[in-house]
Write a structure and sequence with these properties.
By secondary structure, the chain is an alpha+beta fold. It contains six helices and 23 strands. The strands form six sheets. Strands 9-12-10-11-19-20-17-16 form an eight-stranded mixed beta sheet, with no helix packed on it.
Length: 343
């Protein structure tokens, strides 16, 4: 009877809202079941477990062990408070659930508050996935070198072999940190982000196809990403990046050039307007239209494109015929989100 009461209390505690995200591990006779119990029925020294899939299992109470471990949630959503999870669970061994969109065959910048081993990287991102860390900056090229493990807080670029939306891990050490680390190169720093940040200065980011693109002032860097910022007044922008000596990405210069005709004009404005009302204009590049980096193409972006078109000096433009060409910038931000949301 006492055993029954103790187990009942454990389950009552686990049902509290503060423990809602906790992971549950059920073992019977030392073997993990791999299911979550929703109901327990006691019959003397035996109990019957009803699992979330509707199946049942009866065993002696002495053979059954049910443990709970905290699960910390992390997300690259702009308004998500990743620091709250770190404040709550920092320094502890916990499970983690991470929402971070990445795409097969495309480099993405990733900063996490926990280490990942080579085995874990291959399990989460797919066998053969590549991870690289900044090793140097040569003139306007950032040079990365592949590595096998990831250290908490360090920003890396990763090329998964499968599409990623979310992933979960058990038993990781969550590090106490308020922000990502900074990796320095000649003329540039690479800074990891755990929270949404709005860095000052002119910026660029890495969009679909490993293209570096320019970002207008006021854009945001999403959590679990990172960005380059110039540390030398003579630095302009990064034109490309390499992995193990091979160029894998380069700059795409024209912000607001939504139809990729190398100028910003009334056609770009009208195509963006059509997009805001639910149409899908042929050849429309949403990444070039989302100038304020909020993940959506709205009337605000239309106004910003109009400003680029009529005022070459507003932002990073220089006059070019009937449209405007975007000039270079002094900071580089990175992103590889298929939805063309800035980092």
């Amino acid at each position: 009877m006492i055993k029954s009461i103790i187990l009942s209390l454990l389950f009552a505690i686990a049902a509290c809202p503060a423990m809602a995200d906790d992971g549950e591990t059920v073992t019977i006779g030392g073997n993990a079941v791999g299911k979550s119990a929703t109901t327990i029925t006691f019959d003397g020294d035996n109990l019957t477990l009803t699992y979330s899939d509707g199946s049942q299992q009866t065993a002696s109470m002495e053979q059954v062990n049910i443990s709970f471990s905290p699960t910390a949630a992390f997300s690259d959503a702009t308004g998500f408070d990743n620091l709250q999870s770190i404040k709550t669970f920092g320094g502890q061994v916990v499970g983690v659930k991470v929402s971070r969109q990445m795409h097969e065959g495309q480099w993405a910048l990733l900063c996490l508050p926990f280490d990942m081993s080579a085995t874990t990287i291959n399990t989460v991102f797919g066998s053969g996935s590549k991870v690289a860390q900044l090793s140097s900056v040569t003139e306007s090229t950032a040079n990365f070198t592949t590595c096998t493990e990831m250290t908490a807080g360090i920003p890396y670029i990763i090329n998964p072999t499968t599409d990623i939306q979310t992933f979960a891990l058990d038993q990781v050490v969550l590090r106490n940190m308020a922000e990502g680390a900074t990796v320095s190169g000649e003329g540039f720093d690479l800074r990891g982000t755990l929270q949404n940040v709005s860095p000052e200065g002119q910026v660029d980011y890495l969009a679909n196809g490993n293209n570096l693109k320019s970002l207008t002032t006021g854009g945001n860097i999403k959590p679990l990403h990172g960005y380059f910022t110039a540390t030398a007044t003579s630095a302009s922008h990064l034109s490309s990046f390499t992995v193990d000596g091979e160029i894998v990405g380069s700059m795409k210069m024209l912000l607001g050039d939504v139809n990729a005709d190398k100028k910003v004009d009334i056609t770009d404005v009208m195509m963006t307007v059509n997009s805001t009302v639910g149409q899908n204009p042929q050849g429309f590049d949403a990444s070039s239209a989302d100038l304020n980096n909020d993940g959506n193409v709205t009337i605000t972006d239309v106004i910003m494109i109009v400003n680029i078109m009529i005022s070459p000096s507003n932002g990073e433009n220089s006059s070019s015929g009937n449209g405007s060409d975007i000039a270079t910038n002094s900071s580089i931000l990175w992103e590889t989100n298929q939805e063309e949301v800035l980092p």
